[in-house]
Amino acid sequence: MSPSVDQLAILWYPPAYDIRVEKVSVPRVEHPDDAVVKVRLAGLCGSDLHLYRGTEGITEPCICGHEFVGEVVELGSSFQPSVPCDRPSLYSTLKVGDRVISPFTVSCGECHFCRVGFTCRCAESRLFGTPNTPGGQAQYVRVPKAGGTLYRLDEALAAYTAQELEAQCSTPRLADSSLLLLCDILPTGVFAAFQALNHPKTLPMMTSQPYPHSSALITLKGILAPSLHRPQDTVLLIAVIGLGPVGVCACVAMLDILHAKGLDFRLVAIDPIEARRNKMASIYSKMSRDQERGYLEVASIEDSRCIIFEWSNGVGCNVVLEASVVGNSSALSLAYELVRPFGCITSVGAHSDSAVPFTGRELYDKNVSLDFGRCPVRAMFPMALDLLVRRQDIFGDVGGEVSLVDKVVGFSEAATMYQEFDKGKCGKVLFDPWK
Ligand SMILES: [Zn+2]
Ligand SMILES: [Zn+2]
C-alpha cells in the first residue's frame, strides 16, 4: 500500500534546543538504489545531543534520528531478481514488506572500505539525521544505497533455528525494542570490546607469550627462551569509563568474550552517576557465573583510581574503554591516567573539535595506543545480533531493572524527552511514530 502524501516527523531547528513535531512530505525513491522504510521504532541516542545542543555547526532544520527499524514499503529499480554478481545480494533479495534494520550510517557495500569491513568509512557514507540525509525519527525514511546499508532481519535470523531462538531468548520472537539496539549502541559496544581485546598489545596477556612472540606473525623457531610469565601477568585489567547504554553494551560484550575464551580478568566499570552504576551491577549479577575467571566491580571515578591502584600495584590497566559517547575530554584524561605503559585506549565516543587532553610526549612516555572512531555497524552486525539473541534477558526488556531501554513513547513527547535526556533525567528512549 502506498503511503499517503504527508507524514509526521521530529525536526530540529537551529540554533539549538528546539525540537518540533511537524507534517512533512513522505520521502520517495529518488535513486535506483533507494528504499523507503516505514519506521516501526526510532531511537533517541547520546550522539543526537550534539545536534540538539547546536554544536554540529548545522544551520538548517532537519529530521532527527539515526537509529530506526521498520518495514520496506518502496524499492528503487536496482532491486530486481538478477543483479550483477559484484553488487550486494540484497539488491536481488529485498522485497516490499521485509523487516529491516538500518545501521546509523549509509554504506554502499561495494567500495574498498565496505569490501574489507570498514563500513563506517564507506566512500559514500552519510549519517542519518542530517540535512542531506533526513533521519529516522519520522513515520517514513529514505535509505540511500539500501542494498549495501540495510539488514533483512529474517535473513539474519535464518542462521538460528526456532528451537535455538526459543532456548536462547525464552521467547521465539526477539523483542522489537531490542532490535533497535542493533542500529548503533550494541554493535558499538561490541566493537569497543573487540577492538580492545583484539589489540596486539593485549596479546601477551591472552597468549602467555611475551611480546613480540605473542603475535601470529612471528614464526621463528628454536630461539625462544622459556616464558617467564607469572600468573599475574595473564590477568587482563580493564576499565570501562561511562555506563550509559553504549558503556553497558561494551561491558556485556567484554564479559561475554572473556567468559567464552576462559580468560583471567578484572573489570572496573566507572560512572559518576549512582543510578547507572546500580544498573550495571544488576546486569552483572545476571551474567556472573560460578566458573568465571574474573569479576567486575562498579565504581565512581574517585573509587576507580584506588581499585586499579590496588589491583595493579599502581601500574594501571591493560586496556581502557572510553564509552562516554558525547566524548568529553575529562573521560579521556581519566583514560590516560588509568592506562598502564604499553596499554591501549579505545574510544567510541563521538568527539567534538576540542583537542585531546594529552601531549605527544605523554603518549610516547607510556607507549599508549589510541583507537578512536565510529563503529562499522554493518560489519559488526553478526556479532551484535548473536549477543542480542543470547542475552534477551538483558536486552529484551523495557523499563526494568536491567533494561537498556527506559521507555517507548509517541512523538507528542519528543520535545520533553529530548530535554530530559539532555539533562540525564532518563535513559534510552524509543519513539513509536504510530502511537
Ligand atoms: Zn546512536
Ligand atoms: Zn562503501
From TrEMBL:
Residues 32-146 form the Alcohol dehydrogenase-like N-terminal domain. Its cofactor is Zn(2+). InterPro entries: ADH-like_N (IPR013154), GroES-like_sf (IPR011032), NAD(P)-bd_dom_sf (IPR036291). GO terms for molecular function: metal ion binding. Keywords: Metal-binding, Zinc. This is Alcohol dehydrogenase-like N-terminal domain-containing protein. Pfam families: ADH_N. It comes from Pisolithus microcarpus 441.
